[in-house]
């Protein structure tokens, strides 16, 4: 009971502004500021009567060893906090590092718990994205048996990323781990739409059509399946975008990234992917090879 009065005790959780908050019960401030305030409290005995603490407690001052906080064998000061509205946790951590560097006393910063994991994972994010892109490129190169055509698929990915980033910026979403999961999903779906067009355009080009005609024909033929699958996925994540209550922040982050990313990848990708296909093939000289092959077939 004394720990609840003076330090507080955890009770349960509640949702406030789509964030989960903890509920603590504690004595009112005027009745727990001094040791003598304990005499103002009562406890119920076995008979149900309220007995004052003064009946069975006494206050006495004595000396003892001070409590010292250490981390990695050094004297430390534990600082806990969170980023202000409109700022990411990374910006808050950078600001804290700057303030500690300006302070006197030779203090340094050492992160723990979630902040430490964020620092470790943040340094690896760029390498993970690079490895993912290389892996996808090699898979597409093996699929099409070409080193040039996969570029037209990968170039469509930034279109979906742009839509996801713009949607998150417009709705005030943070660049957290949940948004990154939605971003990776958007990249895969944008590449899927591009593969549908590029694969058909490549087949048409091998049949003798020019690169431009093959790209336009592929965009027309693949328009309906692309729209059907994209709309199904966009409407499927709409409940995540509109989610409320406990855990809704994570659902919103994933839903917003996929929702706006797929809208951009579908509406803009249907125009950009054929253009990327024609530009990459002409840059690699594939149009000249197709013309030469067509002339040889006519001669034969």
Question: What would you note in describing this structure?
Answer:
- By secondary structure, the protein is mostly helical.
- The protein folds into two domains: 59 residues, Multidrug efflux transporter AcrB TolC docking domain, DN and DC subdomains, CATH 3.30.2090.10; 154 residues, Up-down Bundle (Multidrug efflux transporter AcrB transmembrane fold).
- It contains twelve helices and six strands.
- The protein has a two-stranded antiparallel sheet.
- Helix 7 runs antiparallel to helix 11.
**CA gyration radius, whole angstroms:** 31 Å
- Roughly what percent helix? 55-70%
Total domain modules: 2
Question: Which structural class should the secondary elements be placed in?
Answer: mainly alpha
CATH superfamily of the largest domain: Multidrug efflux transporter AcrB transmembrane domain
H and E string: HEEEEEEHHHHHHHHHHH
Extract low-pLDDT stretches.
Answer: none
Largest sheet: 2 strands, antiparallel
Keywords summarizing the entry:
300 residues; mainly alpha; Multidrug efflux transporter AcrB transmembrane fold; 2 domains; two-stranded antiparallel ribbon; elongated
Please give a quick description of this structure.
With 300 residues, this protein is mainly alpha-helical.
